[in-house]
Structure formats: structure tokens, C-alpha cells
Specification:
The chain has 56 residues and is of the alpha+beta class. 27% of the residues lie in helices and 27% in strands. It has a 3-stranded mixed sheet with strand order 1-2-3, with no helix packed on it. The chain starts with a strand and ends in a 7-residue tail after the last strand.
Length: 56
């Protein structure tokens, strides 16, 4: 699964809450054999991949 959400603030930097939510979703989805491949944070100025940052 690939997750994505926007940051209306304009900053694509992942917050502590973004990272925690991703880890929670990874744990929950692993119970039904679904793997989280990436989580993108999207803004008008660009995007950030949590996988590229080593957070997944």
C-alpha cells in the first residue's frame, strides 16, 4: 500500500504525528499481510517520501 496526504501549511516535512501514524498503520496492516511501501506528503511546492527518508 502507498499512503499519501497533503499538508495545507505548505511544508512537506513529516511531522512527529505523520511518522507515528505511519508506524501505527504499518503495524495494523501487517496483521492482514498488507505491506506499506511508502507514505508521501504532498504540498504545492513538492513532496516528501518517508521511504526515501528511511522512515519506513
Amino acid at each position: 500500500m502507498i499512503l499519501a496526504h497533503n499538508h495545507p501549511s505548505g511544508s512537506p516535512e513529516p511531522s512527529t504525528a505523520d511518522i507515528a501514524l505511519t508506524k501505527t498503520l504499518q503495524s495494523a496492516l501487517s496483521l492482514v499481510d498488507v505491506r506499506v511501501l511508502d507514505h508521501f506528503i504532498v504540498t504545492r511546492s513538492g513532496l516528501v517520501s518517508l521511504a526515501e527518508r528511511g522512515l519506513i
